[in-house]
């Protein structure tokens, strides 16, 4: 593999316990800039919990989640940031964010991580356009002087509002929903809601986009459109993508790197081809008990 | 006919005031699902602020009525908003995420605190407010019952319409309004899109208090009297209006306010003054039997 890849996300020893249940145990993995990293694993493996920790939904029991903007050399500062108790550090070349310390809205606002949900969470009563405008809230709040300037018509609020609408229009076009911009989001079909959710996440200008099973419930044609959309996002917007997916055709087609979880632990990590032939992965997907894994591994590799 | 018109004018005036306060209840309910029982007392506090302010303004020798009104509105808006913000910050935010009844009980406590605070600070007697907008228009003068539209009533209606227009623009067209509606539907998701949920909730309380401040000033201009207990009945009526209109629905709050105001005045005018409150609350009970989600409310849908 190419050694010059820039690190964007560094997850170290992430552990999440709910009471006695260990949802994630000592998980470490990395994601690189401009790549699509897939997290796969059987149901209940802890994939969504990883997302919840990254996006500030949960506070992990243990571990560190670092996100890098700009020059990855900033990672050298990580121990200082950890000890001195910073939520983030900025240097002239880049910035480092310790996501496990940040409140949910700050993860989006400052670290610029966006996510979608397995069960779609659009604002159903608002129009498509409004859904995409909410995602640009912070920029508009600053532009409007926290609404105070907008009230008296100052501060170029109108111009920023138009820019925000242009961006929303761009993404609506991209996901093929521009002609329905003024309908309530709840009126869309399932597949269209999924696309809108991705468009909304992209309107926050993320550096890292976390997608939780974006292909769930899609028909094969919609799945392939989704793959195209994700490849487009990576190519044109240099957004790194973290993907949870069960649809192996999507995973194998578009990911650069795959992390496999089972019972909250990492069992494999590598290129799609390497992971596909990893006996541990096959054993996990076949549902083999822990003590039988060795046997299956021998069988498969024989 | 003339009598009917007169009651209509009185009812719409009263209803406008209820409507402005009802918005505060409905907005807070929409966003965090709690009834802010201290809202009526915020209204009462705003009347006291206006009262103190008008004395100050008159004592420094300003006599032009438009200037006085503008100053009163500004002072009352600012200080009442501060009260709204403080109440949320002190009594509700620390309880966010605890069980549903906790902030409700805290709200009742806050209501008692505000009442007693004003009673101690300002005394328990009724206080009168100088007549700032005297005079009236009179119609049907030839008939046996001339219909009177006081200028104070007219200004209540005009101010209400203007304030509602600004408020509607705020909620539908600005980023703050969009964030508010987004929080109403899904707090967590809004946070994940970078909306500062705590701040949005604070601003909701501030806007609700600002509307209550406008209502407070209108109430003073129209009735000319207030005391430390004035917030209770008006608050309950406005709450009733919010429920009648469909709690959580903003147009519903205004409609509910007007309905309650009209029912009250018509009942007082045609049947009995003593039982006007009974009429208003009975209509509420009847409407809720047949339309449990209120006039404009959406039926409760379980959020997934």
Give structural notes.
The complex is a heterodimer of chains A (302) and B (304). Chain A has 13 helices and eleven strands. Chain A is an alpha/beta fold and 302 residues long. Chain A has two domains: 1-112 and 207-221 and 236-273, P-loop containing nucleotide triphosphate hydrolases (Rossmann fold, 3-Layer(aba) Sandwich), CATH 3.40.50.300; 121-204, Rossmann fold, CATH 3.40.50. The model of chain A has no long low-confidence stretch (mean pLDDT 85). In chain B, strands 1-4 form a two-stranded antiparallel ribbon. The mean pLDDT of chain B is 90. In chain B, α1 packs antiparallel against α10, α2 (39-59) packs antiparallel against α3 and α10 (250-270) packs across α11. Chain B has a single domain (2-290), classed as ABC transporter involved in vitamin B12 uptake, BtuC, CATH 1.10.3470. The termini of chain B are far apart. At the A-B interface, α3, α4 and α5 of A face α6 and α7 of B.
Average pLDDT confidence of chain A is 85
Radius of gyration of chain B: 19 Å
Tally of strands of chain B: 4
Q: What would the principal axes of the Cα set say about the shape of chain B?
A: globular
- CATH architecture term of chain B: Orthogonal Bundle
Q: What is the 3D form of chain A?
A: globular
Largest interface: A-B, 35 and 23 residues
In this structure, how is the largest beta sheet of chain B organized?
2 strands, antiparallel
The CATH topology label of chain B is ABC transporter involved in vitamin B12 uptake, BtuC
Going by helix content, strand content and strand pairing, the class of chain A is: alpha/beta
> Whole-Å distance between the termini of chain A?
27 Å
Rg from alpha-carbon coordinates of chain A: 20 Å
Low-confidence stretches of chain A: none
Query: Strand order across the biggest sheet of chain B?
Result: 1-4
What class, by secondary structure content of chain B?
mainly alpha
Give me the side-by-side strand order of the main sheet of chain A. Answer: 7-8-9-3-10-11
Helix content of chain B: over 70%
